[in-house]
Amino acid sequence: MAYEVILFDFGETLARTGFEVWGEASLSSLRRFGFRGSLDNVARAWSKAWEDIDTPEGVAHVEHSTDAEAYDRWRGEIERRALAHLGFQDPSPELIAATLEIQDRHQYVLFDDTLPALAALRQRGYRLGVLSNFTWRLPEIVRELGLAPYVEHVVVSARAGYRKPHPEIFRRALEAFRVEPSEALVVGDSLLADVEGARRAGIAAVLLDRSGAHDGHKPRIRSLAELLDLV
User: Fold this and answer.
1) Residues 211 and 134 in one domain
2) What is the pTM of this model?
């Protein structure tokens, strides 16, 4: 089937954004506040804090997405939980702000295949968007990374008030492009958030499996370059 719109996840699909990117900077910051644990300790605490929030159905947090300040207050509470897992039972506002600043301002790096793939898809006439569970600054980050010439809309959980795989965030993306589910394709690295979330919303999806961890899944690509052979 011919698609009009292709919606890309951001983190670990278009760019490296995971803990391995900003974890060392976070650990250095925590050291200044007396932390003596390991990088693995920090990674587990951060993952656990978000696992406590996310559900298989997705998360609605509309009341925390009225503006950037409201969202940052909510995210600060999640960061407080992560810090509690590290032994900071009453973390100072300065510590919470420092850890959030590192995540927000770290220089994310595009995968080598991102710009060539987006340029080729745009040349073929596809309309492209970003659909991601990410922070409020994602539209700015997209511009800073040079993706704006290729991306028509950025739909991000922080502003939408819903986290994938919640169907509402997929509906918001379709509304932004004014297309039907059958006219869109989702590309992402998460079986639950991207592939299953898209399926529940009636949208086709392709799993981007850069690590090769899901050999049996179809449709699956190992790089964005392979997407050009599928669409």
Assistant:
1) yes
2) 0.93
